[in-house]
Amino acid sequence: MASSATTLLFHHGSTRLTARRRCHSSLLRRTCIPNPLLSLRGPSNAPPFGEISLKAKPVGLARAYVTGAPPIVEEADPKIESEAEREESKDLVKWGLVWSLMSKHKVRLVVCLLTLVGCSTCTLSMPVFSGRFFEVLIGVRPDPLWQLLSKIAVLYSLEPIFTIAFVTNMNAIWESVMATLRAQIFRRVLIQKAEFFDKYKVGELTGLLTSDLGALNSIVNDNISRDRGFRAFSEVFGTICILFTLSPQLAPVLGLLMLAVSVLVAVYKRSTVPVYKAHGLAQATMSDCVSETFSAIRTVRSFSGEKRQMSLFGSQILSYQRSGLKLGTFKSINESITRVAVYISLLALYALGGNKVKTGELAVGTVVSFIGYTFTLTFAVQGLVNTFGDLRGSFAAIERINSILNAVDIDESLAYGLERDIHTKKVQDENLSLFLSSGPDVNIRHLDKYYMSDLKSTNNLRTLTWAGDVCLDDLHFAYPLRPDVKVLDGFSLTLKAGTVTALVGSSGAGKSTIVQLLARFYEPTQGRITVAGEDVRMFDKSEWAKVISIVNQEPVLFSLSVAENIAYGLPNDHVSKDDIIKAAKASNAHEFIVSLPQGYDTLVGERGGLLSGGQRQRVAIARALLKNAPILILDEATSALDAVSERLVQSALNRLMKDKTTLVIAHRLSTVQNAHQIAVCADGKIKELGTHSELVAQNGSYASLVGTQRLAFE
Length: 714
Ligand SMILES: Nc1ncnc2c1ncn2[C@@H]1O[C@H](COP(=O)(O)OP(=O)(O)OP(=O)(O)O)[C@@H](O)[C@H]1O
Known about the structure:
Oligomer: single chain
Number of strands: 14
Distance between the termini: 66 Å
InterPro entries: AAA+_ATPase, ABC1_TM_dom, ABC1_TM_sf, ABC_transporter-like_ATP-bd, ABC_transporter-like_CS, P-loop_NTPase, Type_1_exporter
Helix content: 55-70%
Structural class: alpha/beta
Bound molecules: adenosine-5'-triphosphate
Pfam families: ABC_membrane, ABC_tran
Shape: elongated
Strand content: 5-15%
Membrane topology: Multi-pass membrane protein
Largest sheet: 6 strands, mixed
Subcellular location: Mitochondrion inner membrane
GO molecular function, one term: ATP binding
């Protein structure tokens, strides 16, 4: 087997991956096509940091770079990394990563450290000066009062300055870390395989980026204030040291007592967190009920459901009230319990310290200082306990983020195309820099460089798809979440270039599944899809997406203007207003668009809800026209429309279909009679194939379907 090997060094951000690119004649079935992706190579003498070693397995078949079909390549499988390495690198959010992102701000970190020491020193010195102040007042200390007061004034001025510098810098570091994490999590979700989105609800995924990341965000934001986090820690540590320096006899007894009381109080306060949470939950339940009621107000009205909704909301108000009352009790106990801690400590101090002052073992100033430290220690210990609680919450949030993102593998083919796109786009789009400025661990887990480097040149993909037939070759498929239900079982069909193929069949026969496979949202478990004889898996997914357009029954528009929705047909290009209008005219949408209040700048609302079904469909067709993809899929595109809208949409579709390789899925057989070929799908395979008249003449299931629909119509 003829093979050539080159070493591919792929370097972006701080990740450098090395992969060996081989070009096998058996793989490409022709001379090796120079891969434009190789232009991403770094210098060949780059140091080996971060290299992924490739070990060729002695025997076995190569995996395709996507899961699914039997290997299309009969060659040794080069192993990119061991299973242990794979497992090890699965988590997206790791403390090592957080630290590596933080360490990018070295100067700020040093400033934070110095200012933390500065403000803690000021705070901890205050009680000492209070002690001296009293000693000056009672004449034990000979220093002039003004001298002492000016020292205290300096201390009082420095503390807030240090605090501002500490909080500002810490905040800047953390916000930058959070921005990168947010961007990386968003990207990681975006490149998951389709089954990931089958598995998780949108709410859960939104929660990752809002509440879970919020918990991580608050660990620093809520803990940089006085009495929390690092400051609390340094104050506890510093106070204990000072107490021992001031009075080695008094410090162990008092220090231990204060610590014990403060910890107990803090732990008690922490134990009331569930009550606060329950109250928050009751509030969330109420707001869910409100939003559901008002968003479904027409359904509520049509069923006279107002009384039921009122009763439901009433029960929620009452439970919110109950939890509010409980919370009030706990709040009042919480308020006074800290004072109890301080009072117990003070009493102990007065008793022990007072005795020692009387016997002359201790100076009055020292006891006064001790009083100040009693407050400092009590609040600092409680702050520390709260910080530990926040840390626990953050650990749980990180675990949730990682467990969701690790549940399904990323779609490597998609990830690769996106990664390449981000790198080529970075010069133009500053917003993408967030997705680049990742630490070594943030980057996509495993871009399978070996397989990816064998992806075909995408330059000829458009040419191939304009001219070549699309073949669905012996496809077998079960949805990943229902592996036991075989949806396709040896499905074979050829979509001839530039012609229209209609796919009909009973509900649940697998027609939309074919669309999903053609769009490469899922990969067949067996069999392959080819275009002009080339397996589509030889092209990366983002390029494939550019050659295929789907118009379905419920087109989804973004909550942007009409013009922006049409321009989404070419999301990465600058689209001129003229091109948008041209597409809108060709899709019979121009007239209704100009009659809208702001014409092309009118916002279409959430999911296009401010437009009618037929208008939405025509905007979607304009979007597809602009995209001008050679392969077109119409999945029940006109089935939800009335006769007038259907006529308008159909004539727009006829323009869109011109010269395209089109697959039409329709229940209404009248809409597919003129197709070049009609395929009848049943039990996961094609049962009949031919033109309308041929199939009617066959008198098989198509003919009976036609008969049934005619009867229903009559
Ligand atoms: N994401 C999914 N996960 C699991 N099973 C699915 C999924 N989508 C569809 N199915 C199942 O796959 C089978 C085929 O569904 P498909 O949507 O392809 O049928 P269809 O022929 O397009 O039906 P219809 O004409 O009613 O739209 C059905 O049994 C359906 O329940």
